[in-house]
Amino acid sequence: MIVKISRYILVLSAIVGFSMVLPQLYWMAFSEPDKPAFIMYSCIKNDFMIIDRDADAMQWRDTKGNSYPRNEFEKNLPLFYYRQLMLANTMPDSINGVAMDMHSINYNRTIFSISPNELDAPVAELYPLFEAESGRANIEMPDDFFRIGWRMEFIDAKTNKILEEKSRMFSAVLYKRGFEFPAKSINGIPTPQKSIDEGYLVTDSKNQLFHIKMLQGKPYVVKVNLPSGLKFKAISCQDFRNKRFYAYLFSTSNELYILTQDEYELIKFPVSGIDPQKYKIRILGDLFHYNISITSNDFIKVYAVDSDYNYVDEYKEFRHPANNAKAAKVFQALFPWQIKLKDENSTYIRFFSRFNSSFYWIILSTILVATQIFIVKKRKARLKNNFIDFLAIGISGIFGFLAVNIFPNKFYD
Q1: Euclidean distance between CA atoms 260 and 243, whole angstroms
Q2: For position 246, what pLDDT does the model report?
Q3: Residue 137, φ and ψ in degrees, nearest 5
Q4: What is the CB neighbour count within 10 angstroms for residue 357?
């Protein structure tokens, strides 16, 4: 009995091993690089301009199917290609009645992106709190780091000792502002490589949002008023050139917000389906529009929102790279699932399982079960004694077929 159990353990281990190795080898052999289209709203054409980058050659077009030479295409996105247009002396003096100059273009230009693997990643437990009013030209790294558990604690980096006076001072102010310990998330820019320090946006155990920074050694804490029931799955603080905003905030209901500086006004973008845990999100902002793009393996969707946060337009394009689409169909027919140690949506190394969304693999499993029955009969063994092998093949397809034949059932022969 022990020998039989050992054999089934080997079969199960082989199934898991094949689930990891065979799909990976398949994609190494048949997948091709996939570059999604670049899509951006034009303040000249009032239409989305598209660059197809996964074709044999670059193609520049709009949503109506009109093609453009590269130079003409760039003229329709002057706030994105402004350096090239100025070099070629083709930059317009004004657009929509607004005079164009390098300072105003740069001042209002924002580039932001976030991917699922940034959220499924190790979280630092200690953060530097910079002095926001040091009087120095450059931001300097502090000698201590903080964490927020049952209170806000500062720890000296050299001695590893808790700085009690500073910890009590900040904790007391947080408590007076209504902070409910511990913190759920601490969000900021924990590096001195920024133009100015604005501290951290912190959510407490009750999903309340607070702004915390240090002014001349003293705590500065503001509680941000949130609509009832609003919770955030991600907050990304930004060092905006125009200093109008603190951060982009992504709600648990897949909405996108921006938090203004000083007034702490929470502005909601007129968009939906913004889920950084599933899709890559990119936001390009300029004088006239925000371009908010959502990229998945299956589609690209771009919203155009004006500078007053009004909905302008949207465009969606499904992604069907020819070679990868064919390879994906064959993959669905071969493998019922795949197990990986790494995933593009995570920075962790652990077991990731992805089950086949179709059931084409059942056809191959049925054929393999029939093949195994033929093998057992040829071996003149009883079918009922190999029932578990047939079940393993039926459930795991080619993985089970290879496993039970590498470790054959000889106990009933």
Answers
A1: 9
A2: 96
A3: -70, -35
A4: 8
CB 334 within 8 A of CB 361: yes
For 24, half-sphere exposure in the C-beta direction (CA atoms, 13 angstrom radius) is: 13
**302, β-bridge pairs:** 293, 315
Are 95 and 104 contacting, i.e. CB atoms less than 8 angstroms apart? no
β strands within 157-265, DSSP E: 183-188, 200-204, 209-215, 218-224, 232-237, 245-251, 256-260
pLDDT reported for residue 412:
52
CB 307 within 8 A of CB 288: yes
H/E segment holding residue 395: helix 387-396
Partnered with residue 293 across adjacent β-strands are 282, 302
Express each pLDDT in 232-276 by its tens digit: 999 999 999 989 999 999 999 999 999 999 899 999 999 999 999
Enclosing H/E stretch for 283: strand 280-285
Q: If you search the block for the tokens 């990304």, which residue do you land on? A: 236
pLDDT at 322: 53
